Every structure is written in C-alpha cells, then in structure tokens.
Amino acid sequence: MANEYVLEGIDGPGLSNSIILKHSAAAIDTGAKGFMELVPGHITVNEATFIFPEGFPAVRVALQEQRLRLSCQCNAAAERLCQHQAQVLYNLVNRNELRIFFDDKLRNERIRKAAADYGLENAPEPAAYFQVELQNKKAVIRPAIPGLLPITRDSFGALQEALFSNAGPALPRGAAWSPDTVRCIVIRQHKYYKHLHIELYEAAATKDGKIKHPLTLLQPVDYIWALDDPRQIRFFTAITRFQQPEGGKRTATDIESLQAIIANPLQLPFYYHNSDVSEHVSVSSLVPVRVSALKHPISLTVTSAGPFL
Ligand SMILES: [Zn+2]
User: Fold this and answer.
1) Distance CA 67, CA 203 (A)
2) 55: CA distance to ligand 1 center in Å?
3) Rounded Cα gap, residues 145 and 128, in angstroms
C-alpha cells in the first residue's frame, strides 16, 4: 500500500522549501550526491511520477484545487512526508524545469514569452495554444496546435529553404542529341513507394518515327549546358527533380517544375509506363499519353478557425 500525504491550501507558486521542512518527518541532507537529480518517469501539468534510481519506491504527486497529494510506495508512517516524498518535493520546488509543470505563474510567464514568436503575446489566454514538455532535462514550450508556426527570421528562413530550395547537381559540359533517334519523356511510379518519376529516354526510331528497342535513359543535365532558351532550360532542370524524387511533401518548386515539364518546349512525345506489362521501361510497356494542365484550376477553400486565419 502506498502511504499518502496531503498538503492542504497550497498552490504552485506557493511551493517553497520552508513548506517541505514544516511537513517533513526528519531533517534531510539536500546536498547529498544525486539528491537534486531525480528524473520524472512521467510529468505533465499538475501531475508527476518519480521512480527512484534504485527502481523503488515510486512517488506520485498531484496538485488539484489547492491540495497537493503525494503518495509513496514505502511503508513509512503517513503523518509526515516520508524522505522520498520530501526529496521529490525539493526537486519540484527548486528545479525550474520541473517546477514549471506545477507553478502556473512561472508557466504562464514562459508561455507568454514563447507566444511572442507566434504573434500571440497579447492573446487573452496564450496558455490555451501552448503546452510544456520536458526534453533532455529542459522544459520546452511547444504549440498545442500542430500547424502553428513561429514568425521569426529563423523560421521564415527555414520555411523558404524548404519551399524554394533549388539546389541541384552541378551541370556537366553540354552534350548534343544523336541524330536518327527519338527522345521521349517517360512518366512512371516508383516500384515500391509510388512516387512520381519523370525520366528522359532516347530510342531508335522506326521509319514512321515511332520508338523501337533499345531505350536509353538520358541525364537531362547533360543537355542543359548547351541550351539558351530559358523554357528549355527550365524543362530539363524540372525533369532532374523527378528523376529521384524524395517521398513526402510536395513543395511549390515541384509544382512549378511540373508546369515547366508540361509546357514541353521541345514537343517531345510523352509515354506512361505500364508496370503491369513489365517493371522495366521497354517499348512494350510504354503507352503514349498527352499531357496538359487542367483547364479549370482546382479551387481550395480555407476556413478560418478561431483567431488563426
Ligand atoms: Zn517513501
């Protein structure tokens, strides 16, 4: 059975060393090695569990309506705080990264400071939009709403980097088209991850200009060097982005790249790779397709939620 001790009429900001002393069973050496280094197994606003380094005992603390309840697994008499409960309280009172979970004054100060980065410092209740977490022995204030973004120079820089990064491989010296061949664009899905792949191929041509075996994968960067037309440069650069696309989010640059490919300034034929026929790109697994942008743009409706537009 856990012994429980309750401190009545107490709130977070009122927690102090003298209160612990007043309720402790015996004098405690707070300077002992490791005394102030307890790590909570779980901590959230007004509630925490600490397990002592030896694995025993576990102490639970909960603050509710000016009642601070502490329970401990040891069998000490319940008239006073046992040494474990006292040690937990000393840690809570004197270490701000733990105290912030119980002291709403301290917590609101820190949240208001963090809220300034989000333009919410003057919101009536900034605490409604943030939560506190313990990470690597530090209390971290995080937005409670996943989409809430800070508006600092750093975060804008990071966002811009993510959206408009154009870093690509260095361009080698220019190459020229071989005569008597057909160049074409092949659209296909990644075998496992289903990402969109767009590749440039060269094939021998039949008399009537159709592609025939064998097909050779070309590196678009090899041709960029020799081009002057900005539309053609955009076209080949865009293909490089889809040769080895990364999974996950599509960026604004991806959309611009797709538009540059669809513009097709060299009027190259497009083919879709039918992986049901063969997982390899071959004449038999390619289906001619026509690509174009949607005539009627897709519209997106955005509804405002609370103070966020
Ligand atoms: Zn105890």
Assistant:
1) 80
2) 13
3) 10
- Å from CA of 61 to ligand 1 middle: 12
Boundaries of domain holding 139 = 104-151
145 burial class (0-12, 13-18, 19+ CB within 10 angstroms)?
Answer: middle
30: left (phi over 0), alpha (psi -120 to 50) or beta: alpha
- Is 94 found in the same domain as 43? yes
Amino acid letter, 177: W
Separation of CA 89 and ligand 1 centre (Å)? 12
Q: Are 197 and 242 in contact (CB under 8 A)?
A: yes
- The tens digit of pLDDT for each residue in 7-51 reads 999 999 999 999 999 999 888 899 999 999 999 999 999 999 999
Q: pTM value?
A: 0.55
Q: How far is the CA of 161 from the centre of ligand 1 (A)?
A: 53
Residues 199-217 have pLDDT tens digits of 999 988 887 778 888 889 9
296 in any annotated domain: no
Q: Which residues of the chain have pLDDT under 50?
A: 167-174, 309
Let me know: does 86 contact 94? Beta carbons within 8 Å. no
Find the 71 Cα to ligand 1 centroid distance in Å: 8
Question: Are 135 and 207 found together in one domain?
Answer: no
According to DSSP, the residues that pair with 36 across neighbouring strands are none
In the block, which residue shows the tokens 């159709």?
210
Q: Is the same domain home to 66 and 124?
A: no
